[in-house]
Design brief:
Blueprint (H helix, E strand, L loop, with lengths): L19 H11 L6 H22 L21 H4 L5 E8 L8 E2 L6 E2 L6 H5 L1 H5 L14 E10 L2 H17 L6 E5 L1 H4 L3 E2 L5 H21 L3 E5 L2 H4 L10 H18 L8 E5 L14 H9 L5 E4 L23 E7 L9 H15 L7 E2 L9 H22 L2
Parallel strand pairs: 4-6, 5-7, 7-8, 8-9, 9-10, 10-11
Antiparallel strand pairs: 1-4, 2-3
Helix pairs in contact: 2-6, 6-8, 8-10, 10-11, 12-13
């Protein structure tokens, strides 16, 4: 994995805006329309090649495939990072309860349980705002049904991940880019669906870990950097009602860490980065758990790099945790210094200030400038690209200050 050896290098958290033609094609496929698989794959590969070019032109040093292989049929879509896994895991019935009707999840008898999505504490506190269609709090159209586990979890996404890898490698090669990253869902988030097969949530989670390991290994074996996405590590806090103690929550969450570490056991840590976020919807987020309370949980994940939100107004101040927490030797951080949570494009000088803060605390070579979360589906495409440009410009300004 590249580091900032002689300047601050840049990357991002994964999702990027899809071209209109690709969104239309995905929508047609999702609705059962007659779409030629060959033509679609040609269109998809061309889009991936183009998105790698665009990232390179804007100054992104370690690009991704934009998550283009994770189908998004609407401009506003916060869930493609998760939904894609439904077609890659065997043992699921697609006709389960709707997302906001799912029953509580409990990892072990006597432990705290996740409530339904509709009972989140942030959602309850700001019920009027969440119910107001003009408030701007939306994640796009909701599916009428959600998958449910009805049999043994297996990995059936071999062809899909092979296509994603081939498309991305074609994009990297066509644009002369040496290193790129590809995202994949972590077991703790993959198992946030109803389960009618496994006796405990722990069994279910480790079954997901065992299945998803095949996807992780395929990405790394292809010479790519693997990014593991698991909002459940931080976001679940808001979905436990009443609010648990931090000790209870960390015990609840460490099971997810153990499952993820099992899934990546034996894989090279220096090819793995982990992404932490508090959920990317544009809500108040007043019930987010503080970074200080879960930073040790994040660092218990056996990754070589950690990506996390640090640019939005709810979490920007938390850079100070690195004054007291030592980043383990050989590890790198990718703090978000531009945010998906606002349409305001950050000024490059502000971006530089944010980068320098982290560099002064953990070392300039151990900071890669990144985004809070994925930009695709969260902000308008023109704004997303402008944010990446500001990211690169800010990194250049920070580099001048840090290497002068």
């Amino acid at each position: 994995m590249r580091d900032s050896r002689d300047r601050i290098i840049t990357s991002h958290a994964g999702s990027l805006p899809r071209p209109e033609a690709l969104i239309t094609a995905n929508q047609a496929r999702q609705s059962g329309g007659d779409v030629s698989q060959t033509q679609f794959q040609q269109q998809l590969q061309a889009a991936v090649v183009d998105v790698v070019r665009r990232q390179k032109d804007l100054g992104v040093d370690v690009p991704g495939d934009g998550e283009y292989g994770k189908s998004m049929g609407h401009r506003v879509n916060y869930g493609a990072w998760w939904h894609y896994s439904f077609s890659r895991l065997g043992g699921l019935d697609p006709n389960g309860p709707a997302l906001y009707d799912m029953p509580p999840h409990r990892s072990q008898p006597g432990q705290v349980a996740l409530t339904s999505f509709s009972d989140r504490r942030d959602r309850q506190r700001f019920a009027a705002a969440y119910a107001d269609p003009e408030s701007g709090i939306t994640t796009g159209p909701r599916a009428a049904n959600w998958p449910i586990c009805v049999g043994p979890i297996t990995y059936i996404g071999q062809d899909a991940i092979a296509r994603d890898i081939a498309n991305f490698k074609a994009g990297l090669q066509a644009n002369g880019v040496a290193e790129g990253f590809m995202t994949a869902i972590a077991p703790g988030s993959a198992c946030r669906i109803a389960n009618r097969y496994y006796g405990t949530e722990q069994e279910f989670m480790f079954a997901c870990a065992n299945a998803l390991r095949e996807e992780y290994k395929a990405i790394i074996d292809a010479g790519l950097v693997l990014q593991l996405d698991d909002p459940s590590i931080a976001e679940n806090w808001d979905q436990i009602n009443p609010e648990p103690s931090v000790t209870e929550y960390k015990k609840f969450t460490m099971l997810r860490v153990e499952a993820l570490n099992e899934a990546i056991k034996g894989l090279p840590q220096d090819r793995i980065r982990f992404h932490l976020c508090w959920g990317s919807w544009h809500g108040p987020h007043t019930t987010d758990i503080p970074m200080r309370d879960i930073i040790d949980v994040m660092l218990a994940i056996n990754a070589g790099a950690y990506s996390f939100e640090a640019g939005n107004v709810r979490h920007e101040h938390e850079y100070r945790v690195w004054q007291d927490v030592k980043l383990p030797d050989g590890k790198v951080i990718l703090p978000g210094v531009v945010s998906h949570a606002t349409n305001v494009v950050e000024h490059p000088e502000l971006v530089a200030e944010r980068i320098v803060r982290f560099a002064e605390l953990v070392g300039r070579e151990r900071v890669i400038a990144s985004t809070d979360c994925g930009l695709g589906g969260r902000v308008h495409a023109d704004i997303a690209w402008a944010k990446l440009e500001a990211l690169a410009q800010g990194a250049a300004l920070a580099s001048k200050e840090l290497w002068r």
